[in-house]
Predict the structure.
Amino acid sequence: MSDLRRVCVFCGSSKGEDPQYAAAARAMGQALAANGIELVYGGGAVGLMGIVADAVMAAGGRVTGVIPRGLFRREVSHDAITQLHETATMHERKALMYELSDAFVAMPGGIGTMEELFETLTWAQLGLHAKPIGVLNVNGFYQPLLGLLEQMQRSGFVKQRHIEHIVADHDPVRLLATLAASKPSG
Ligand code: AMP
């Protein structure tokens, strides 16, 4: 997985009801650190965001957080990560997260996570980047969304080539390996 230097992870600022979501976030953090891949994420200490960041740090990995100045309360940003970038706006934050990263992974999350995932998909569709995009499909969490994307394709709103590259896997190690293999060289 040497081609993946930094992976941007989008995930819930909540933990979710079922402990399997937290377990999956820990497993993702451990997989990143074990493969020498730096985590780029929203910089929060809460929910799955905090869990994945803590897991990478605990396993001796590197974590870069990108958080909008003043938008989230001070105590919510994570102060025990490798580096924390503060941006002026939410848009700058996302632009920096995208720029820093070689691939994107969405773990289970809420509206913020979906917005970030769909923005990366939109930018890929417009040809603004060709970075691989994956979803960590913990216990089928992403099945309804993958079904909706297929429905959009069948209904003529989305082209097959714009969704067929999305990697879905419940296993973080295999997900990262597939993303590494699908990264365009250069
Ligand atoms: P949600 O899925 O609605 O919980 O939103 C999570 C996503 O929105 C994360 O990937 C973050 O980029 C961003 N976000 C939401 N809440 C926070 C927070 N308290 N601190 C930092 N980022 C956050």
About this structure: Strands lie at 6-10, 38-41, 63-68, 83-87, 103-106, 133-136, 167-169. The mean pLDDT is 94. The first helix runs from residue 19 to 34.
